[in-house]
Amino acid sequence: MISLALVLALLAPAEAQPVKHRITGLFSREREADLREVVKKMGDVSIVEIDFDRAEVTFSYDAAKLFPKTKEKDLLERFDNLLRSSSASTFGAKPLCITPQDKLTRVEIGVLGLDCKACALSAYESIFKIDGVEQATASFKEGRVTALIDPAKTNRAALEEALKKRNVTLKQP
Questions:
Q1: Does one domain contain both 89 and 105?
Q2: Going residue by residue through the chain (173 aa), what tens digit of pLDDT does each one get?
Q3: Which domain covers residue 108, as residue numbers?
Q4: Element holding 17 (H helix, E strand)
Q5: Distance CA 77, CA 46 (A)
Q6: Nearest in space to 159 (alpha carbons), one of 126, 137, 134
Q7: Among the three residues 28, 63, 94, which one is the final residue of a domain in this structure?
């Protein structure tokens, strides 16, 4: 016999829970408005908090309602797909950084010619995809690309090479 409590629990509406993801495409504070507009398109998803220094965003959503019949191990991939499709692939979701902050190295590279958000996004994407880059920013206003890297996996030269391949002009020291 099924208990009344179990029946009520099964029938009760699920509730949104805070979930933190590392967000790609969040390369400058100016992108906050863009992210908020994208999230409005995602249904029952809202932003709780944005940590720009770590490129992490705490969202609130009910995973069971948003992604019915999805296994827990596949939730991040499903959220990433939803975020990408809602943003024309300018934002994405990745697992949180597991490398301790004190093990990461900050690399700043001066660049020329980043005169719009699209240019900054292109420069950002060229370095963020490199294995070992845990967080990156690109500012056309400051003329700088910044990355937090795991020095055991990548280095400044690899970042500079990726930028050059995207035809980004580096400032000479």
A1: no
A2: 554 444 444 444 457 889 999 999 998 888 999 999 999 999 899 999 999 888 899 999 999 999 999 999 999 999 999 999 999 999 999 999 888 889 999 999 999 877 788 888 889 999 998 999 999 999 878 889 999 999 999 999 999 999 999 999 999 87
A3: 101-170
A4: strand 17-24
A5: 18
A6: 126
A7: 94
